[in-house]
């Protein structure tokens, strides 16, 4: 009996320490306690240092980025990157109160007003009066924390409450009472939302602290906090003449600029962002089909069949299994979580990043990667045995490497074709890509730009291997969607591309041989 | 202060007149007032002229169309085009009342009876007793209007009410009390539904009034009201020997014939048709992926996360933002709307139509196109600023043209290959397509018919460019789905096809050159 | 009048006997009556013979299958096939009661406990106290039947009731009160679930009785009951060196081993499995896109727009049209049904099976196929006229054959290329596939393995024709998704592949001719 109790105790302690979720940590996770250090982000005692965060945010912001001379923003881009490009419209003269904004926009754009008027922002008293049983009860404490923050910064007077969060608060500045439409109107950026939501701002910005141990990616990449920089500093994005197509990339790569990618204006709902579909617009398709993989996995199926109508998405993520009644994870429950805590830093468990490369594959036993794998095991162990979780993650790692090997073999074939000058049209009709892109086989630019025989068929095919199929293969494995890494996407597609490249390689070399023989005979 | 009030007034007036939604228009939109002129459709004072509408409907109907000698309907087609092909079954003898229909079909096909018995058609008294607060309250007035219409046409006696809308009303004629199963049974067509729903019939038929200013499309095309004609007068549809495959096209191209494409029998729900999925069966896939684009756009994501369970789809479209509580558009809210009114004419804002062509691209500044663009701006301005709306529509126009340019360049290459006789197998193994299709490179027929080397690889690839990828590119842009016109569909696919065509062009020309040199050497 | 009544009577009798759903049959379908013969499965009077079923289940189980020497299971596979590979973890010592299991796992893996605690298994008293009006009322009788069964087998004492179905019941044995974690812990297999759910076990196992009249498939194939055998006895699955990719196939091909493919642990919900999404993880994608076809068909659209929130998925399948209020079918309503009865044998109406072949096409008029077609007509006639149902099934059969003809023509071309030694690289760089696979053109192995020029481009393309596009074509037809067999998948893709194969055929033969001429000239 004593042995058995000892075992139980061991298990309980083991499980707890494994999850890094001890009592201290739990206390830290308390949402009422604003003061904390988020992944190295320095915050002052008692409160986040909003001004320092804001200063750093703007200092880090790349604006047009390093290729600034190569492109000019088109009008729509002021909405994707208001930090750098937004100008208030010059069609409306005068200074207005929030009531006047609403009165007029009720007619000119009623959808805005309607979405806002049902939001928490428009109904702060409803938040203040929530019962403890209400799943949104946590918002009451959050509101108090926000108000205390604003008071400590002098935005609100001591003991002053926010009346509502209305047009002017977000489009000119918290606490302002009127706004000149032509000179003061702003499109809210991360820092504007962060003026109240300072904890979430700090958490989200802390993604920039990501550092890869062998320099696989530049500091802070890939992340939401640096996604605009990643966008504008991509060679073909900056160089392609079709600016209206290029700006399509901005439409997801703007999380660095704004918060409404997940919390759509003007409802700004937390519940919305907790649902998997909220991630779908950006996380789908040929080079990162996370949404499709999730939805076709058992996890997604449970969401669809059992969760959509029954789980309570108003509860905080940390309570999803208990008060939320979730019986499967959503995107947010796995990707916001790290060692038992939930935050807006989504990259703390990232291992393979955007795409599998040898530089990652060869270092998976490094402690940086190994610790993150253990953090994943702890996440999965919410609902699975640790042994199962580890077996799956090992399987997914090895399966990913198997895909990588095929892609790397194809890459060598394509590189050799290029080095031998044997790509179709390589010597006769291969214009250079637009600067700053530089000619190369299988390069990223070939997915978004083509002229004459650049890219070649084999180069383009290899680009699809590493940028589409290998990524889908890896995403299929890690999101546990069997068809996603066996027959529909991933492996079977890699086999197809490999076949096409081998086929083309043999064809062009036979043709070259024949031509050579012919030249000799013709002499 | 006076300046500010003046500004406000200006804005209010501007917004109202911009939307074309002034008080007069609002009154016109009143659903109780049946008399109106729908896009040139002549209607009598006080009521629509149902008999004239019906006569025109049948007169316009193409039956088997102009290729009538080339094909014969197969049995299933009587269900897609009852106007031309339906024959009552000869297995049941006798004449029956609705009660007898129901008694028997309750056993032979209970699903019909069950769907109908829950419908408004089976429960007119419930409609008559709706409270003003009920979202379906508008149906009460609609029912009264319908009954007045039927009374004025003598179908109902003065002051007579409809008891219910039951089997015989739709399958033999409104108000009939019995039906001979072998001789009188009809499958309801548009005119049959229009016997009561005359306003919707008139609106839907008014799509035929569409006239393109530079003749880009024949009158009335593309539209739901002419989709059967478009179907049977497509050369490869009429000519392909696989009739069971060909009839698959009918399964969407039957809106000209029937109303249950959107309001599925035997529920005939309006709420169903207001949901985006109702459009999915026809508006998805390789050559018009509207559904996918919508669902992955922010609009669709809001529908999925916030709307599906919360918005009230029983309210009329015109009240979707207010009583319906929509916070994002659905298919219907944008495509049924025109200058603030909602109707069953869905083509009044069509600009690029089915597919982008130079004939459209070159005329976008013509007032016909420009006015429609302004109508779109007004639609978007329900929830966006006019400046944003215009910036987006400009972006989408230019992005579409950028795609078109790539496709046109590829088209020239393919045409030149054909003119030079250099398509693979062109001189040795290129059978003619079945009449009435005629041999051509990159033609539509190559998507549905192939024999020997017709179509060639390059021709088929070009057909996919203009008929799949360019359309997806354009639909991705206009439905604001970033992946739909950047990396997953659209632009990146156009680049792939362009690469394939350039590659093939270089290959076959090199081969031809080698052959020629060889022939010379062999002489 | 007499004639009319006679007609009605005729119709009623005809319809009933057609559906095979007469009163006797109805009585048989009564779920309270456990004793019955399921498709030849011998069951004892008064109860199923669980011990015999279990013995046969294990006797039939292939374990590692006939290629056992070629592969070794990796750790994750113990979870897909616990019958053969599961080992209890050695990390926990001691013997525990269910209460102790729960106490510990509440901390180590709370998701399990939470899912289970909301399930019927954890709340048997709630089942016992259900009101007759509750849609789950049928579970009360089912529970009584199960308990009687267990009593008759001596698992429960006479009149003893189950307290709950808890950890130990499923992970060690029904009725056990404690379990040694290191030696007794099992992962439940079909037979374990069958210990209580003996009727469902017998029904599911009866899929093995499937016998094809002309030997088109081996006995019992294709079916859920033999899917593990089908998996491990597939040559390329056993031979491919990438075991982590190969195990992905297991993740669906494990229904022979476990029941949680449809009733996800630890909720084990019947309602879940009645929803179409429950089938999605396995029945989607390139070689069996049933889910996509269903969702885009009218059936799926009605589910999405009218059903998802309104139908009652707690009711038994047999009551779906009545108490369930379904107005369209789901996967389960068609595939669980056979002649008016619903069971866990899903193959009783299978005709074309996994993929269309000439051996099936040429025998469709054989009574085996014809009777199954009539069973389908009866299913469809729940909501459609028999004439419509027959017209559709005829259309689908003929359309499928039209697709098959194209694939067969392409097959001949590819076979001839192989026989002539003309596949690209065939004589210079075509390594043998890994044993037990044997070299062949267009073989299945080429979808999952590639090296050098094996498979060739033309062979791989043909493999995609028969294994992807033809199957999608057929599935699109039978699931009534027009785009699925016209332009998006199916037919139009078959045309594309055919074009690619014809193109390659002409190219390589021209090249061979040129080489030959050149060799002659060089002599």
UniProtKB/TrEMBL annotation, chains A, B, C:
GO biological process entries: anaerobic respiration, using ammonium as electron donor
Entry's cofactor comment: Binds 8 heme c groups per subunit. One of them, heme-4, is an atypical heme c (unusual heme c binding motif CXXXXCH) and is called P460. Catalysis takes place at heme-4/P460. The other c-type hemes mediate electron transfer to the external electron acceptor, which is a cytochrome c-type protein.
InterPro entries on file: HAO, Multihaem_cyt_sf, Multiheme_Cytochr_ET
Record: residues binding heme c 6: 224, 283
Residues where heme c 7 binds: 334-335, 479
Top-level enzyme category: oxidoreductase
Binding-site list for heme c 8: 299, 384
Residue positions binding heme c 2: 171, 266
EC numbers for this chain: 1.7.2.6
Residues that bind heme c 3: 121, 196-197
Residues making up the signal peptide according to the UniProt record: 1-19
Keyword terms, alphabetized: Heme, Iron, Metal-binding, Oxidoreductase, Signal
Domain of life: Bacteria
UniProt-annotated binding residues for heme c 4: 253
An example molecular function term from Gene Ontology annotations: metal ion binding
Binding site residues for heme c 5: 263, 344
Residues that bind heme c 1: 101, 104-105, 167, 170, 181, 193, 249, 252, 259, 262, 279, 282, 331, 380, 383
Catalytic activity: hydroxylamine + 3 Fe(III)-[cytochrome c] = nitric oxide + 3 Fe(II)-[cytochrome c] + 3 H(+); hydroxylamine + 4 Fe(III)-[cytochrome c] + H2O = 4 Fe(II)-[cytochrome c] + nitrite + 5 H(+)
Known partners and oligomeric status: Homotrimer.
UniProt protein name: Hydroxylamine oxidoreductase
Source organism of the structure: Halochromatium glycolicum
Lineage: Bacteria, Pseudomonadati, Pseudomonadota, Gammaproteobacteria, Chromatiales
């Amino acid at each position: 009996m004593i042995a058995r109790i000892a075992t139980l105790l061991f298990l309980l302690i083991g499980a707890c320490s494994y999850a890094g979720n001890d009592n201290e940590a739990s206390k830290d996770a308390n949402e009422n306690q604003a003061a904390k250090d988020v992944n190295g982000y320095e915050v002052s005692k008692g409160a986040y240092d909003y001004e320092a965060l804001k200063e750093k945010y703007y200092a880090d912001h790349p604006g047009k980025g390093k290729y600034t001379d190569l492109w000019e923003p088109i009008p729509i881009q002021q909405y994707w990157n208001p930090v750098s490009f937004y100008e208030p419209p010059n069609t409306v003269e005068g200074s207005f109160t929030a009531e006047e904004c609403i009165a007029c926009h009720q007619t000119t754009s009623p959808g805005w007003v309607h979405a806002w008027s049902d939001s928490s922002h428009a109904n702060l008293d409803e938040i203040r009066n929530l019962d403890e049983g209400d799943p949104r009860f946590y918002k009451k404490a959050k509101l108090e924390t926000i108000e205390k923050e604003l008071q400590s910064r002098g935005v609100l007077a001591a003991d002053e409450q926010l009346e509502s969060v209305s047009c002017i608060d977000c489009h000119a500045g918290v606490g302002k009472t009127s706004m000149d439409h032509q000179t003061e109107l702003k499109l809210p950026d991360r820092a504007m939302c962060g003026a109240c939501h300072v904890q979430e701002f700090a958490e989200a910005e802390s993604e920039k602290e990501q550092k890869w141990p062998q320099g696989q990616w530049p500091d802070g990449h890939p992340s939401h906090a640096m996604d605009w920089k990643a966008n504008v500093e991509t060679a073909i994005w900056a160089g392609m003449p079709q600016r209206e197509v290029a700006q399509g990339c901005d439409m997801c790569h703007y999380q660095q600029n704004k918060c409404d990618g997940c919390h759509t204006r003007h409802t700004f709902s937390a519940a919305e962002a907790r649902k998997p579909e909220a991630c779908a617009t950006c996380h789908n398709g040929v080079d990162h089909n996370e949404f499709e993989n999730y939805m076709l996995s058992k996890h997604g199926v449970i969401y669809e069949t059992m969760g959509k109508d029954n789980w309570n998405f108003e509860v905080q993520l940390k309570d999803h299994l208990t008060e939320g009644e979730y019986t499967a994870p959503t995107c947010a429950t796995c990707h916001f979580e790290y060692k038992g805590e939930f935050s807006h830093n989504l990259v703390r468990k990232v291992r393979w990043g955007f795409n599998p490369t040898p530089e990652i594959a060869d270092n998976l036993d490094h402690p940086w990667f190994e610790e993150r794998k253990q953090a994943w095991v702890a996440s999965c162990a919410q609902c699975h045995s640790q042994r199962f979780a580890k077996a799956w993650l090992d399987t997914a790692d090895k399966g990913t490497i198997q895909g990588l090997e095929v892609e790397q073999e194809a890459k060598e074939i394509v590189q050799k074709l290029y080095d031998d000058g044997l790509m179709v049209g390589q010597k006769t009709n291969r214009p250079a890509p637009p600067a700053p892109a530089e000619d190369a086989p299988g390069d990223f630019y070939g997915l978004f730009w083509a002229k004459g025989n650049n890219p070649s068929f084999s180069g383009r095919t290899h680009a699809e291997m590493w940028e589409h199929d290998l990524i889908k293969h890896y995403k299929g494995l890690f999101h546990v969607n069997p068809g996603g890494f066996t027959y529909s996407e991933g492996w079977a597609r890699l086999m197809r591309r490999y076949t096409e490249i081998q086929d083309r390689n043999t064809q062009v070399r036979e043709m070259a041989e024949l031509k050579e023989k012919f030249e000799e005979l013709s002499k």
